[in-house]
Amino acid sequence: MAKEFELNEVEVWDGNYAASQALRQAQIDVVAAYPITPSTPIVEGYGAYVANGYVDGEFVMVESEHAAMSGCVGAAAAGGRVATATSSQGFALMTEVLYQASGMRLPIVLTVVNRALASPLNVRGDHSDMYLGRDSGWIQIDAFNAQEAYDLPLCAFRIGEHLDVRLPVMVHQDGFTTSHKAQNVYPLKDDVAYKFVGDYVPVDEMLDFTRPVTHGAQTEEDWHYEHKAKQHKAIMDSKTVIDEVFEDFKKLTGREYKRVETYMMEDAEVALVLLGSSVETAVLAAKQLREEEGIKVGVVAPRCFRPFPYDLVREALDVPTLKAVCCLDKSSPGGAMGALFNEVSAAAYTTSSRPMITNYIYGLGGRDFAMDEAKRIMKEQKAHADAGHITTNIQQFSGLRGPKLGFYETRRS
Amino acid sequence: MSMTGSVPGTDNRGIRELGAEEKVGWDQVQQGVVLPSFEGDAADIAHQKAEERHYADFNSYTATVASWRVLKPVYNRDICIDCQNCWVWCPDTSIISRDKQMLGIDYDHCKGCGVCVEVCPTNPKSLLMFNEAEENEEALSEWPQKEKKAK
Amino acid sequence: MAITSIKNLKEFSTSNDRFEGAHLLCPGCAHSMIVRELMNCTDDNLVIGSNTGCLEVSTAVYPYTSWDTSWIHIGFENAATAVTGAEAMHKARKRKGTLKDPDAPVKFVAFGGDGSTFDIGFQWLSGAMERGHDFTYICLDNENYANTGGQRSSATPIGATTSTAQAGTHSYGKKEKKKDIVSIMAAHGAPYVAQLAPNKWKSMAKGFQKALETEGPCFINTVSACTTEWKFDPKDTIHITDLATDSLMFPIYEIIDGHELNILYRPKNVLKVEDYLGAQGRYRHLFKPENKHVIEQIQSDIDKNWEMLQRREEARI
Known about the structure:
The structure holds three protein chains of three kinds. Chain A is 39% helix and 17% strand. Chain A is an alpha/beta fold. Chain A has two domains: 11-253, 3-Layer(aba) Sandwich (Rossmann fold), CATH 3.40.50; 260-407, 3-Layer(aba) Sandwich (Rossmann fold). In chain A, the strands form three sheets. Chain A has a seven-stranded mixed beta sheet, sandwiched between helices. Chain A has a seven-stranded mixed beta sheet with strand order 10-12-11-14-15-16-17, with helices on both faces. The mean pLDDT of chain A is 97. Chain C is an alpha/beta fold. Helices cover 38% and strands 15% of the residues of chain C. Chain C contains twelve helices and ten strands. In chain C, the strands form two sheets. Chain C has an eight-stranded mixed beta sheet, with helices on both faces. In chain C, helix 4 packs parallel to helix 6 (122-131).
């Protein structure tokens, strides 16, 4: 029996340590992992719990991230709770197996500490790894600070393992800005946290010898399509369970999570839509702009990146006063508009307010996104709103040295 | 397709051609593409003969590949010494042996490779390949005599 | 372990097959002979993993499985990792008391072809061996990427023609020698490593039983004659394998704890390698006068290897 970890009511933890504590409290059966900056401390933290008797499960240190996820898939198919952590290149290396985990409907939890993808090699935080996972069939939940990096893995086990869902779940946090920044975190006691997560319920387990099962069969053109459709329905429908789990978590802790977080949107004329640790910067900037210049700014932050909360994004943007929205993508889109821009635009298109929408690429490779820049972008949206049309390129780069870089304009006749 | 009614374990064997199974819709396919091999409790499977098991429809045991065959092996009980060479080397689990005795060929799963004939040590052989269309009785009536060893 | 008797074939034949027919392997394929024998030599529960390859694509095509035991496939390279993940889960759940039947005996086995074992899955295999999991990895070595139509692998012997190392007017086929996977695996310090062949069914069954009984990571390379890509008649699979073992192209031996080598089969009459090569289409071009030197080289390599194996055995280190 694992030892109880003595915790204070308030701890000073960074995002990595917060995530590792959540993993420990979930009493995972198998962690198969390979360290990579900036998520290494999650694996190290877990290693310390193993070494000191705080974990009953197996800790398998494999030889690569591909093997980490492969070990997780094998372990999950054997019928127990499984989790791991990674970032960036490691995430890219395990991508093949991410698709297999979701197709095989194995509820693995992966804590992703977001980091840029090479080339050029870069260890700092952006969302290119998170975006790489967006078609992988995993539920993707985003933590904006250390407290959330603790809370959301606990929710993730409940969500993924729910018998109506049975899908793997990623919990993202931003490299360094969240993962290495010490903040106040209010943890649950071990027994309270475990009780919230609950016992793992095996499904089609390979270790039930009364019922041998084949995992990972091949399907060709006469079966593959139906399987992918069934899988898609499962992730689309998972929103109900996500809402329920967040509601239960609020009852337990008072901390409220929604699939889409909205700030000051009730009367907003302009809004920013963004993800990750920048959300807190944007909210603070919006508050100040409201006070300083009376610009009615709101912020919309998808907590759930997958399933994309089409319904709640639409609801958040369906504000009669709303005229201009800027979507900020912290990932180089490689020849397109940013993914968040595209998806938010699709949702906004069906609102009656039909705001103008522009796109900023920002923060690549850990480039700082500070209050002044947030305010400048907000004011630019106000200029669009006042002019009644988009006054800049539709896609621009924020915080970039050199000549102004932008693409596409509104077509006006 | 079963031509060996006296051989055990033929009840639910080879009931359909591969690909002829019902193509159900997305709502009825197996979650996670998982295929259970048996119906009910299969804990003791290692101690059960095929005829004692409850194969699930997902088990390939219930399907047939007989149409792959051009030539078929025919078994002559009168000559067989039950050495079990054919059993150990059959790549298609198609030699039916019970209690150390060779009983016959599972024609639903045999692909007609001819390995069993090649490894048969008797003289004449107790297994020989014949045209798929030929009746087994006729094949048995044409069985060759013992070959003299070449000096 | 509940062992099936392998005293003689009659005894062995009383075991109950757990690998079913109507799989899609080619007629005469040695893969299924080897898999059947592995599954028949124990009564224990099995959790089996397969890398992508002939075995995998032929035995689990929805909605059919040919496996009567639990089985998993993920990708081309990671069956060793999948199975050792399951083995870790078994340990954890046994300790925590969450297994349905905690006393049920179970063995963990991974299968890979030579493509996944020697090449694309090499790292995953090495990692799993190094970590010391209690499992057995069996390579079904048919010396080419047969599943994709016969391309070269690092297990393809020198002189064989494959679609990506073709014999032609300017080429005698593959130029490079086969990778010595058995030595590499033994160098991991694995408690049991062997090279076995299905024509020698008893030594293969004994080797399988030893590997399953031995705690820790075990590796077995099995020669799996490939009727389609080696180009011989399907009925001749065992005959070709006899030529392989009796020409010492495939010596049968084991290495215990990384150093103790035992030769498990000594042919009474060692055949010339021409007898083995000449029986297969993939070596036909070697019998042209200009390629004679390749046959000589193969024979010389075989002789040296056999000498080396005998000396290592004699050394008893």
